[in-house]
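Exercise 3.2. Students should predict the tertiary structure of the chain below and write it as structure tokens, then compare their answer with the key that follows.

Predict this chain's 3D structure.
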Amino acid sequence: MPDEYVRDLRVVAGVLPFKVNEYVADELIDWSAAPDDPIFRLTFPHRDMLPAPVFDRMAALLDAGAPRAELREAATAAQRDLNPHPGDQLEANVPTLDGRRLDGLQHKYAETVLVFPSQGQTCHSYCGYCFRWAQFVSQEELRQALRDPADLTGYLAHHPEVTDVLFTGGDPMIMRTDVVRRWVEPLLAQTPSVRTLRFGTKALSYWPQRFTTGPDADDLLRLLEQCVAQGRHVALMAHFSHPRELETDQVREAIARIRATGAEIRAQAPLVAHVNDDPAAWSRMWQLQVELGVIPYYMFVERDTGASSYFGLPLARALDIYREAVRGVSGLARTARGPVMSAAPGKVMLHGTTEVAGEKAFVLSFLQARRPDWVGRPFFAAYDEHAQWYDELKPVSFGTTLPAYAGEQW
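Answer key:
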């Protein structure tokens, strides 16, 4: 790459995390098309991922040979301005046990608890649009990490309403299998109310060898089989951003091996500029998923954090892309719901547009919500061709309001 690009990379990587591995570089990126190759855009920094004033400030310090401490101080200030934990995650989602805050757990919806195992808070490679980017920077106070599996089982003992546990990160599949066992086996033995174990992972895209030729790949598959044999539903929540990630022999073998354990694979990703803002890419990706036995699950909207100004798209454009993409596949691939925003009040699905009382409006509903009685109830927002996120929407003028979460008030 040109020296100018390498300098830009160093500037951006001083604020937002950057990591790539051999598999991504050798198997997924078409270097003849770089820097416009979609997988290159997915993983390698671009100067526009930072607001111009932040980029210029960091570049000036780097060019001047500023001391490491000064660079770190500037990066820390920039990171705090990039909304590191969107959706009130730390303010509203973190539960307590016996009066003690359990950082590393999130309990937003009654049925589901998210777990951030401390050993799984990295990934094989990083997506530039990752909304968990704060897990990978040097500010400890921004990270979510649970160190003791007993805190998880202890919390669940007081919450029998929880049926699903989702291991997330980072990427739990970065952990050795013996570490995964230390988190999973207590759930099998002590929490019969938990019926579904989910693992949020990008490993199938970025390191499918985790499930094939890795040193403990067979042991991991035996653990999945063990969970299924004990009556648990096991789901790998795979993160596929582009159809190219499904085209290698390695990933296809990994998918087949996982499915042979009785576990299922569901696929989700955000719709983002420069990577997959093309209906044909989504149609192709969903079709490949169905052929390989993967269930298309969500098309998300890029969250309002990190490099969202670079990767984000207007909701109106996202709706057009989803509708055109879903028209290109059969019913078996239309299980993918979208566009969906994981906003502070809940998961908001954009169904389409309509006209009410002479006013053009978005039609939305909650797939999940902090208030369960909101789920499935349609509501309207004034049509805005520029809005990219839930907080930017405004009520329609004919008297309704937008659901909003503010502390304990709804």
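Discussion points: Residues 177-190 form the longest helix (14 residues). Residues 340 and 349 are 4 Å apart (CA to CA).
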